[in-house]
Amino acid sequence: MKTDVLASCLMLLAFADLAHAQDEPIATDRPDFVESSLTVGERRLQVETSVAWERDGDADAYTTPTLFRYGLGQAWELRLETDGWQSIDAPRGGGISGVSDMSLGLKYHVASELGGASLAWLLHVDLPSGAREVRGDGARPSLRLVAEWELSDSVSLGMMPGVIYDQGDDGRRYSAGIFGVVVGKAWSDRSRSFVELALPQIAHADDGGTVALLDIGAAWLLSQDVQLDVVYSRGLNDRSPDHALGAGLSIRF
User: Which of 22, 122, 124, 250 could cross-link with 144 by S-S, CB 3.0 to 4.6 Å?
Assistant: First the structure.
């Protein structure tokens, strides 16, 4: 009896390893601004974390952006996102630091395609849950649509329009647009790079203005479930950070 139980357990483990080996390679929402249209898969957990540096004028900011994704089914995933530990060093204005706000979200991968595009909806709400020094004001919901096209065997195009309902320092609510477009190039089965225009905020000057960034980056698969990446961002106007760098690690369980 013990031998039969042991053999059954070994067979189950072998089947589980085979199922994971047949998985598609990990698809991450980083390092580009435009999210992936794919979900992580039923009952799969994916952690995407990084360290990031940003310079705006004389001020330096350091964060540890992290995203947790859990598959509620083949088409749905639950998301928990944060900038992690945030530290801002301003030579003339002192420094502040603390744990950043949390964002709760859902992603829904649309089964049908539109014009050959893979589609997904993302609904998030940023919560005023961080340390007092870096906490945002009120709950800030956002809605985004991701569309991805495979232009060839190695070139892809992604677009992400959206809208966020935010709150300014004066307590006044306002709506802002979101937009990103990215072109990706796969160099092999394990390496890819991208160039991207990212507009995380499109708003009136009284509401903080428009933030516009040019991003370039690359990612490497260490295995089907592990990815390393790097990204560099250059601000395109006075309301955007001058420079930013990030390096990330993503793992699927």
Answer: 122
